[in-house]
Amino acid sequence: YPHDVCVHELFEQQAAVRPDAVALVFGEEQLTYGELNARANQLAHHLMAQGMTVAQSVGVCLPRSVEMVVSVLAILKAGGAYVPLDPSLPPQRLGYMTEDANLHVVLSNQNCIGVLAGFSGTKLLLDEEKLVSHVASYDSQNPVNSLKASDLAYVIYTSGSTGLPKGVLVEHQGVVNYLCHAQSYWEEEHKGAVMSSPLSFDATVTTLFTPLISGKTLVVLPEDITQTFKQLVWYLFEQGESWLFKLTPAHLDGLYPL
Q: What's the mean pLDDT when you consider all of the chain?
């Protein structure tokens, strides 16, 4: 695997060679590689203009959506590490995580902001009209910074079932190594992968990034489709040639009779 490359740079390589290919689908929305790269770049430039520094951790408190994917890529492009904050978690737990991770900025929206009541840092609401207009005014070219493959890509918290949640630090080089292995399983006829789990679930990294570094399509499922296993199975059969990564034993048990 390339030892001196960061996760988002693998995505940028795909955006450069296939800008018109579909990169992301969420419900009725879809973005090409060129469009997704441009939107992530604009948000990254905004974060850097706000004083974001290399290796700074930034929270992402968003449901599965186009904005969630754009936010993760933007944070990486700006040189930071993203910290998933599941909006379905109790505010007390989220408050502990934002403090423990020393977060000064969290990307969120107006529906999720209520669970961040205890966070005193900057909350960037990505569905706020004024911010949307401001971010769209930034350069859409790839940002340049001093980020290295040995720097952090993300910080993900354990369940805390044996005590307080613990932040696990994951570097770019480790993620790139793993993703290149996952990428080796792609077959040409498979058109993409389905993301059905929360960003705060570490296994989601496989589904989120593998298609985007492979020139395939990432299909992000809305929350309502994944509320029951029956809905998820129906969607997968409708979609056809898409991967579903990281199945639990319960998922396999439900799929086997079908």
A: 90
